[in-house]
Design brief:
This protein is α+β, with helices and mostly antiparallel strands. It has eight helices and eleven strands.
């Protein structure tokens, strides 16, 4: 049975106070549609901001051919900026990574220089932060040279300004969970909570103008909750979730000054 990270019913259950108070100004259908729209918007916006896909997604950088995948441009790099000591490493645009299918060094999207052997990066992928490191080992010397005769000087920091491939193209699969799986991965509660708060915040922002601060009927006064405060609370939860995500799935940035 397919699993779901967050449903519209989850959003409505979380916003039970809001649901009660908009019953008089929004029909059940209109409220459900507002929650559905806000949930879809929250998922898309957070995915872009956090550089992820929630559902398992196949990504291709090595081809322009149409297919059942997301097309991404290759990763530009300047060989002069490569580390003199240590091995090359690149970070994918989306993470966490589920699998790496292929890594190529290309002059342009239609011209492959070499396909990097899987042995060079297998075991050197940080699945959470999307970092793919290249370590050429596990091959004989003749096979190594035959696969990438120009690549050895690059590893030694000696390429200089020679014409070399300027694109790293990685075919990979990324995403937080697989909808076809039976269970959600560890940490799903935190992710679902963050998305739900973002969706509820979106609904509240949309219907805030419809909610009076208080009403007086037959001499009795009823005061509604402070919606601004409730929206602030939801915003704080969203920001807390983003910080949690960054601490787990953002690659460390090092700035030299």
């Amino acid at each position: 049975m397919p699993v779901h990270l967050v449903t519209v019913d989850d959003v409505m259950s979380h916003a039970v106070g809001l649901v009660k108070q908009v019953k008089g100004v929004l029909s059940d259908t209109a409220l459900y549609e507002a929650c559905e729209d806000s949930l879809n918007h929250a998922k898309d916006e957070l995915a872009e901001d956090l550089e992820t896909y929630w559902e398992k997604t196949v990504i291709r950088q090595t081809t322009d051919e149409p297919g059942a995948y997301v097309r991404e441009p290759g990763i530009d790099y300047n060989p002069l900026s490569m580390p003199t000591y240590g091995t090359p490493r690149w970070t994918t645009r989306r993470r966490p990574i589920i699998s790496v299918e292929e890594v190529r060094l290309m002059f342009n999207p239609g011209a492959t220089a070499i396909t990097i052997p899987a042995e060079w990066y297998r075991g050197h992928v940080d699945w959470r932060t999307g970092t793919v490191a290249i370590l050429p080992y596990g091959m004989s010397g003749s096979a190594y040279m035959g696969a990438a005769v120009w690549y050895l000087p690059l590893l030694q920091g000696g390429m200089g300004a020679h014409p070399i491939p300027n694109l790293v193209c990685i075919d990979y699969t990324a995403g937080w969970y697989d909808p076809a799986a039976d269970t959600l991965p560890p940490g799903s509660a935190a992710v679902a909570n963050g998305i739900t708060h973002a969706a509820v915040l979106g609904v509240m922002q949309r219907v805030a103008r419809l909610i009076p601060t208080s009403v007086s009927t037959d001499g009795f006064s009823q005061t509604f909750p402070n919606w601004e405060r409730e929206m602030e609370n939801n915003q704080k939860e969203v920001e807390r979730f983003k910080r949690w995500w960054d601490s787990h799935y953002r690659p460390v940035s090092i700035v030299m000054v």
